[in-house]
Amino acid sequence: MDMNDALNAFSALSQKTRLDVFRLLINVGPEGMSAGDIAEVLDVRQNTMSANLSVLLQAGLVRNEREGRSIRYFADLDGTRELLTFLMADCCGGHPELCAQAIEAIACRK
User: Fold this and answer.
1) Considering only CA atoms, which of 70, 68, 40, 71 is closest in space to residue 56?
2) How many whole angstroms from its chain centre is CA 69?
3) pTM given for the model
4) Do 84 and 91 touch, CB atoms closer than 8 A?
5) Which CATH class is domain 3-106?
6) What mean pLDDT comes out for the span 89-103?
């Protein structure tokens, strides 16, 4: 990921509804959600949700799959990983052990 890609991702996440969508899709995991279900859960109009999902798609933070007449959205974990890697690339001035707490805090736990 380069600087422009990172800026695009941060720009996409700098709006409340898009950040809510992204966090919701991260939370639901591999099942994803339809655009209509996302809009309903977040109490956002369908056309507004469509525009926000488009911005997140362009930023590489979500992906979609067509299911018949509907589209299911998922958090794009590859894009998310690239963004986190970009942020942590120069972690702690070459002392990665100092970043262990941050890495542990974001690690998935079941």
Assistant:
1) 71
2) 24
3) 0.86
4) no
5) mainly alpha
6) 75
CA distance 4 to 82: 13
Average pLDDT over residues 31-36: 95
Residue 34, helix vs strand vs coil: strand
The neighbour count for residue 6, using CB atoms within 10 Å, is: 15
Q: What pLDDT sits at residue 104?
A: 78
CA distance 56 to 42: 16
Let me know how long the chain is.
110
Q: In what side-by-side order are the strands of the sheet with 33-34?
A: 33-34, 70-75, 62-67
Q: Where are the domains of the chain?
A: 3-106
Interhelix angle 16-28/35-42, rounded to 10 degrees, is 120
CA distances from 82 to 51, 74, 76 (A): 23, 16, 10
DSSP assignment of 65-80 equals EEETTEEEEEE-HHHH
